[in-house]
Amino acid sequence: MRLAGPLRIVALVVSVGLTWIVASILLGGPGSGFPRIQQLFTSPESSVTAAPRARKYKCGLPQPCPEEHLAFRVVSGAANVIGPKICLEDKMLMSSVKDNVGRGLNIALVNDVNDLLKFIRPLHEGTLVFVASYDDPATKMNEETRKLFSELGSRNAKELAFRDSWVFVGAKGVQNKSPFEQHVKNSKHTNKYEGWPEALEMEGCIPRRSTAS
Question: What is the pLDDT of residue 180?
Answer without folding.
Answer: 96
